[in-house]
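Agenda item 2: iron/sulfur cluster complex prediction
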Amino acid sequence: MRRCPYLEQLYRDLAGPLRIYHFDCHVDHRSKRRYALHDSPPICVRDYESCHLYREERRREDDIIYRYTD
Ligand code: SF4
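Presented output:
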């Protein structure tokens, strides 16, 4: 499974018909929840490259690497 490198943990609970995805993000240090009636995992295990947090952190790391290799 493709997953964001900044994803700290992901697990799914069931509450009646609801799927509750719990996921922790290393970038903003927040625990998040996503509720869905059908299988619908968060962006972190789908197209995470379009997540603004991922893109900002990736750009920040690339800048650091560029500075050290310049
Ligand atoms: S996809 Fe975004 S929200 Fe999910 S772990 Fe990565 S940076 Fe955080």
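Discussion summary: The chain has one helix and three strands.
Owner for follow-up: CH.
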